[in-house]
Amino acid sequence: MAIYIALICGLLLPISNTAVAETKIAFGEANPPSIHVAIVKKGSSISTKDFFTTFVYEQSPVVFKAAILDSPAYRLWTDEYFMKLSGIPRDHTVLVESRKKENRTAPPTRMPFKEFVSVYNLTDQYMVESVPSFLRKDYMLPHHLQCEQLMRDVIVETMMWYSSGGTVSVVHTDSVENMNCLVSGTKRFVFVPPEYADKVLFDHPEGSYSGIDVDDIDYAKYPGLADIRFMHADLEPGDCLYIPFKWIHQVRSHNRNIAVNIWWDTFKNKAIDLERCDEDFDPAWTLDRVDTSGFEDLESSPAMIRDFVTGVIGDNSLYVGKFISSLNLPMMSDSGFVGSMEYNKVLAILRKIFELMDVGADGKVDALDIRDMPESRWTDISVYFKEIDAIEKDAEVIEEIHDEL
Question: Of the candidates 49, 100, 193, 312, which lies 20 to 30 Å from 368 by C-alpha distance?
Fold first, then answer.
C-alpha cells in the first residue's frame, strides 16, 4: 500500500545566536525554522510491517493523521462518561502530578480516579497512570501496531495522560519506543535530531532530562541550543506520533487533553517476525488484549544495561573511581546513605562490575572493552545491577519506617 508522506515547514522565526535579554524564548522557538516531522496522511493506513521497515528501523519520527478516529475512546472519553463508570475497585487510585510545568523533584500524589475527574479542571493537577483496567476495552490499537507478537512479547507499558491543558514537560529522552496517540486536545512536540544531541546539556543524567527552563532559554548556560535545527510535530485529536528510542523531545498540551502512550522495548524490534503480522485491520483489538512487561524487567535487561553503560563510557577511558561516579546513581551521593553498610555493599558490587568490564585487564574501561566483552558478561552485570536495585529498595523501606517512627 502506498505511503503518502508530507514534510511541512514550521512557521517559527529565526533568531541570531545571541540571546535577547529582554525577550523570553521558549525551547524550539529559535535558530533556523523548525521542520515538521514526516506525516502519513489521513486515509493512508499502513501495516505493522510497513511501519517498522519505513520508520522504526530507520528511527525516524512520524505523525499518523486521524489514526484512532474509529477507537471507542475517541467518542466515549468525556468527563461525564468517566463519572458514570461503575465497577471501579474501591482501592484503585491514579498517580497525579501537582504542577502543570513539570518538576521532577516534586513528589506526585495518588487519588481515586473519579476524585481526579471532579477536580482537575479547578487545579493544576494532571494524571499520569497506566491505562486503568476499566478503560482498556475502550481504546483500540492503531492499525500499524496490530501485531500479535508485538502485543504479547514487546510492550513495556501503556500510559494515560489526562489534564485540562497547559502542561509543559521538561526536555528529556525515553528509554523505550513510544507511540503517543491523542484522544482530545492538541499537543506540540519539539525534537532535537540525533545529530544535534551533543548540543543539549543533560544536567540530570540520573533522570535522563535537562534542567533547561523551556519557557525562557538561558543561552549562557546552554549555548549549544543556538546551533540546533529543531523538528516539531503538531497533534490534533485522533492523531498518533511515533517517537523513536532516546530522541530528545519536549511536549506542550493545550485544551482538555487525553493521550495514550504505548511504550515498547527497542531491543526486541528485530525479533518481531513482521511477516506473521496480520495486515488486516481489526476493530476489536483493544488494550485489554495487550500484555505488558513493565519497566522493572526492561531496566534490568542485559541489553538495556549495555546501552546505559556504553553511554556512560562514551569515548573515555575510565578508572574505577571515575567509572562509579559517572554512573550517577543518586543513592551514592545521598548523605543518609553514604558510609552505611548498604553503601559499602553497593560499592563492592560496582567494583565487581568494573572488573567484569575491564576486558583488557589494564585497570580502566573504554570503548574497546565494550566491543570485546563476551555477551555472557552483560548477563552477569545485569544480575549485579538487580542486586543494587534490591539494596536500594530495602534502604528506602528502612527510611520510610524511620520517618513513621
Answer: 193
